[in-house]
Structures are given as structure tokens and as C-alpha cells.
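Exercise 7.
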Amino acid sequence: MTDVDDRRDGTDRARDYRALVDYGLAAGIGLGHSLGLRLESLGAGRSVWSLTPSARAADARYTLAGGVLAALMEVAMSSAVQAGLPPRTTQTTSQLSTSFVGSVRVDDPQVCCEARVLHLGGRTATAEARVLASDGTLVAHGSATCLLFAIPSGAAPE
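Solution. The predicted structure, written as C-alpha cells, is:
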């Protein structure tokens, strides 16, 4: 199996993607802003995101809603894939699988999600993610399959 970092140097791609994420957060655009997600680290094939739980993301048991954790994992996995793609290539998540093995109280200081690419092919990529509570306890894990496609010539650059 080819390691993502061996296929290409993703430094520029990761830097450009991070700038796009930072712009969206600062401008109040997107899911990251709505949920309070923070991009901690991004490189070709790996990303780390964090979230401070709050009452706005709680379920009836005053724990972080599973959909919020699933969104955190999807954002982390898709950004890890995106940062490792060649120029003028993009992706979309086609399948998401999540397993919840614990809960996060809304007063927990932070949750952290680390994602890494397992496979980066010509048409698909797969990634996995783990969500940890502030005490290091695993609360969720999952995987995603992403479809890869070229950005057509003449289309706006990524």
C-alpha cells in the first residue's frame, strides 16, 4: 500500500486548505463556525480538530449529540483526504460510518478528533477517525469513503 506522504509533498496543499478553513471560520461561514470546530493540525493524510462542547450541541441527556460527533469526524476525515490530493483534484464523502462508545458531557472542556487517510487511490480514498474526551477516553470512532474527481479546466481554482 502506498503511504499518502510518499505520493506527493502535501505541504502547499495543506497550507492552502488551512487558509481556506481559517477564512471561513473568521468570516462566520460553514459548519466549523456553527459548531465551534477548530483546526489544530493539518498535513497530507492527517488532521486534528477540536470542539468545546456546549449546551447548543446537547441532546436531552445533556451530552454532546451524536450527530455533532459524526460531523466532527466527517470534517476531520475529509480535510485529511483533501490535504493529500494532487492539485486540481477534490473530493466528496460518499460513505460515513460511526460508532459511539461513550458520551461527552456538555461541561467537558474539549473533545479532540484525529483523522488519518488509510488509502488514497485514483478514484476513492478511505480515512478513519477517533474522537477523544478531554481525559483521553475514546468516545467515538469511524471511517469514511470519499470519491475523488478532477476540477474541470476553466473552473475556479480550489
